[in-house]
Amino acid sequence: MPAEIDRLMEAQAQAAAAAQKVIRAGMHMIVSGYGNLALLPYIAPTGAWRCEYHVVGRPDRTFFRYTAASGAKYLADHSGGTLRRSIQPAALAEAIMKSVPDHLRVQCQGDATAETIRWLAQLGAELDAGRLPFAFHEFSEADHGWSTFVLGDSNSVHTMPSPPEYVVRLPVSPTDMPFWAGYRDRIKDLQHCEEALFCPEDIQGEEITQIARQLWCDIQGLDEVDGVELARRALEAALAALSC
Fold this sequence. Notes:
Layout: H1 2-30, E1 37-43, E2 49-55, E3 58-67, H2 89-97, H3 102-108, H4 114-128, E4 132-134, E5 146-150, E6 153-160, H5 178-191, H6 205-218, H7 224-242
Antiparallel strand pairs: 1-2, 2-3, 4-5, 5-6
Helix pairs in contact: 1-2, 5-7, 6-7
């Protein structure tokens, strides 16, 4: 039994270290010329810790996703490549940006504000203490700021300020997660068109791939009703992508 407990604790420690590395990679980007990049860590309805990178103020423009269940497979929900477990945050940041669409990369470029730098220092202190941040969880009811916790210990929650220009999100289901928000408006616009033509030849391959990856990621552990709703959102997103 002690040996099994030791193995579980080691696995938990490795998962926490990998998740922290994802946060630190994003922090490195922000202070290295991508000052308009935003980090969005959160607790998914399944209870899993996840993190997304998106353009500041635009959570619908997400270009990187990671879930703690992936461990050191940092690119599993991104480009799908493999990296060394021991990779440093700066190198991880570079690997992530290699497959980010040019238009999103450009939108993230810029100098970080002094306010953002101060906030990153607070975030770094939380990471140094072995804690992970999260902006919201399934039962969030108000803009209470962000929180931090020790991965695997739900009783270890502390509070910390939200980052500058944080766009409050209070999801109640997987379909309210940041990735799907932009597509919802696009499909509504299409419904008001007298004629909408969808040409398979015009399909944006990378965007459809991102939709499929996000669907696979979010649908894990959902019940049948939520799964059907999420599939419907994915179909709407695919139609919206085809219409561009």
